[in-house]
Structures are given as C-alpha cells and as structure tokens.
Amino acid sequence: MSFLIHCLYRPGGAADRLPIRRAHIHYMLDWLPVTVFGSAILSADGTQAAGMVVALDVDSETEVRRFIASEPYCSAGLFDTITVNPLVQMTPPYTRAVLERELEKCQ
Fold it and tell me: Where in this chain does the record put each YCII-related domain (predicted)?
C-alpha cells in the first residue's frame, strides 16, 4: 500500500534545512526502493520552500512512522505539520539520478 506524507515547515524551517540537506538527500536515496515520488512544496509564489511530500509504497503505516522518525528534516524539528494519508499510485517515480544531481548542489 502507498502512503502520502505531507510536511509543512515551521517558521524558519526552510532556512534551517540547508545545513542538513545533504543528510536528507542521502536518507531519501536509502528509501528510494520504496519511494513512489517525492517533492519539495513551494510557497504560493514559487520562490520559497514550504515543505515536502513523499509517497512510500510500504506494507503498513508503521513503516511510514519509521520513515518519519528517522528522516533528518523531521528529526531536526523543521516541520509544523506532518500528515499521512493512504494513496493510490497513478504515475511512476523518478530515477536515482534526480536525487544524485540535487546532492551535487549541496555545499
């Protein structure tokens, strides 16, 4: 079953994520085999990071909670809200190369 994890940053969370973005991307690479898709959520004007969404194809919500508990942004307390909903997958995920390109952008 797939689950959608929807996370919105607390005030200052978007800026606070930058020092741990590398750890976040490495974490997402570890979870890539069960990732349906993942994306940053942008502000209404598209200029600021506002949060993230991740869809995982896992056996149970317990696995989703394990993902959340260890995800670097979540562990750092960057989010005001985190919601989880069951999901029906309709499109395929991106490849590993997308995350590897983003990793190269990290300082």
Answer: 1-86
